[in-house]
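Protein data sheet
==================
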Amino acid sequence: MSEQEIYAVFEESLQVQRAVLETQLPVLARIAEQFIATFQAGGKALFFGNGGSAADAQHVVAELVNRLNYDRPALPAIALTTDTSVLTSIANDADFDQVFARQVQALAGPKDLVVGISTSGNSANVLHGLRAARALGAVTIAFTGRSGGQLKTLADFCFCAPSERTTRIQEAHITAWHAVCRVVEHRLFPA
């Protein structure tokens, strides 16, 4: 019984990954190109999300700042999910919906790229974060689930993992991020 359940999880995940290849390859290529252009122009990338998406933001930033496949110079990326003093002061003094927007207002500019991650595409604080980025003239990228939610309307580029199930969306997100980071690393710093 356990083997059948595990098999079903992997089979569903593989179906989503295949659907990514069939429907999302062009947008992932454009996202990779935008990262390359941003870094070449001296810009930085800011990432944020909630829960598992916060962990993904931090994971991708680690791949950019440190390395993915080989040693090379660091790339400027920041996860806005890690400074507990900033997060809790904004949540306490203003509103939790503003925890990313306030940081974007402080750190982003028109040369930068701002990434909001939300499996539903409807997380209020992520929406406010991308709105703040747009107001500053930054390029906006969203990583969401199948529908894209409201986030899709705020993004210059939107990767919509073709699933409604949070776990499958998250799996597609991290595979997509590894692919994007591989292209960025390889193009900016050929091995």
In short: The chain has a mean pLDDT of 97. The longest helix spans residues 166-188. The CA atoms of residues 16 and 142 lie 18 Å apart.
